[in-house]
Amino acid sequence: MPTAEPIDANVFTFEADELCIKAAECAACGARFHPPRQYCARCASREMRARVADPAGKIETFTIVHQRPPGSLVEPPYTLADVQLRSGERFSCVSLDTAGMTIGASVQLRVAAFDTDSGPRAGLVFDLVPEGEANA
Amino acid sequence: MREVVVLGGGLHPFGRFPEKSFVDLTRPAIREALDDAGVPFQAVQIAYCGRVNAPMGTGLAVVNEFGLTGIPIVNVEQACSSSSTAFRQAFWAIEQGLYDVALVVGFEKMERGMIKMAAQDSYGVQMGQSVAPAGYARKAQTYMHRHGATPEMFAQISVKSHKNGSLNPNAQYQKPVTIEEVLASRMIASPITLLQCSPTSDGASALVLASAEQAHRYSSPDRWMTIAGWASGTEAYEEDPGEEGDLEPTVTRLSADLYERAGIAPADIDVVQVHDAFTPGEVFRLEAMGLVSEGEGARFVAEGGADIDGPVPVNTDGGLISRGHPMGATGAAQIVEILRQLRGEAGARQVPGEPQVGVCHNSGVGGVNMHAFKK
Ligand SMILES: [Zn+2]
């Protein structure tokens, strides 16, 4: 359910109240990117197709951030991970949790609201999927 | 193509000098480099200045301080690798025969705290993703997961760096630290604690380069080092690296280029400067450079392999962690240290056994530059 307007509507939107993670697929080589790219980083093709990414994935690696970097809305400590989605996109994402993080763990993306100068805005975060509940 | 040599180097000590202007920082560094090279300023035909946060065109002010000779003065902004890029451009200009004598300057004044790496209104910055140590920290987590390395091994690198820095009168931190102090310092991004982060710094560095043909006019060959090879690049697109992926694919690729151009192998290298913005970087880069086998680097460094009297002396001046990291000045400062080491002028931190071959690795948001030098 939408909690607030996205910080950046190029990253995700809500379609009929459903989270829609925006991605792009290269028409020439099939590489997939989130957030979407205009041109392909892999083969430099300019022909990209918009698509929606799967919100389920796994942690490639992570760190627990204890000091707030300049400009961040996220309260430390938080987890910053490289996430790979089941649909193939690889990108950085935070979790508001820090306990139980492991390389290879299953995760699910959702939106969370953050306070900004212009009111609450939504960003993508991930949650760990409890062991056994991850549908492969 | 022509042989190019480094004739001289100079530094302004690294540290915090809020009362000093850019010219205050660069004047002693450039003066020392010119005097060290035996080159009068009037002989300098082109200058390249590496800088990040200075106002536009500041390179002209710092070079013109020595006289208005009307030479081209190039400002180079390449984040943490700015002055190694400036150095490479000067090297190319001489190698190609366009000029005979060039000046390279690096300088920086920085605010305290974590550096800003992207536009402040971007989604990634607002979502806490633009964390300077986090790239190193995430690779360190992968490395520990794969190889059973421990946070203590990374912390020991900081102990080594501070020990070397304590022997360097130009270092920002000249006090040794214990592994207990490193581990007990504030956690920044696990496993990296505060004392495993390079500081923000003010400072300046300078180098004088010349064609070997013309270098004879200024000093004797025993004071030169030859630029034996170079390699530069940025990150290429990587296929999903999977569980075994290379942690430093750019350095791996560029090391092969560097060694081929320089006609050297890892075993020939006597002293190394690597970009250790955060301690784990030293390990990843030594492995990517083929100086230690994959998965062995953390243990190797922790057990003294990279000490000044070890088999692969690394960051003999304290590295970014202890010497300091004024972004625009770092790349050229690494080269100044190699010059001192190959000349046998490094004093208390001199690598024993008359080192003949040195390599520098400087990297960051602006890409990677590597250079090899021979006595
Ligand atoms: Zn493509």
Q: Could you please describe the fold and organization of this structure?
A:
The complex is a heterodimer of chains A (136) and B (375). Chain A has 136 residues and is mostly beta strands. Chain A folds into two domains: 8-53; 54-136, Beta Barrel (OB fold (Dihydrolipoamide Acetyltransferase, E2P)). Chain A is built from no helices and ten strands. Chain A has a six-stranded mixed beta sheet, with no helix packed on it. In chain A, strands 2, 3, 4 and 5 form a four-stranded antiparallel beta sheet that branches. The two termini of chain A are 24 Å apart. The model of chain A has no long low-confidence stretch (mean pLDDT 94). Chain B is α/β, with parallel strands linked by helices and 375 residues long. Chain B folds into two domains: 4-112 and 201-226, Thiolase/Chalcone synthase (Peroxisomal Thiolase, Chain A, domain 1); 133-198 and 228-374, Peroxisomal Thiolase, Chain A, domain 1, CATH 3.40.47.10. Chain B is 35% helix and 18% strand. Chain B contains 13 helices and eleven strands. Chain B has helices spanning 22-37, 58-64, 82-95, 123-126, 134-147, 151-165, 179-184, 212-215, 249-262, 280-288, 297-302, 319-323, 327-343, and strands at residues 4-15, 46-50, 73-76, 101-108, 187-189, 192-193, 202-211, 225-233, 271-273, 357-362, 368-374. Chain B has a nine-stranded mixed beta sheet with strand order 3-2-4-7-1-8-11-10-9, with helices on both faces. In chain B, strands 5-6 form a two-stranded antiparallel sheet. In chain B, a hairpin with a 5-residue loop joins strand 10 (357-362) and strand 11 (368-374). In chain B, helix 1 crosses helix 2 (58-64). Chain B starts with a strand and ends with a strand. The interface between A and B is large, with 39 and 36 residues.
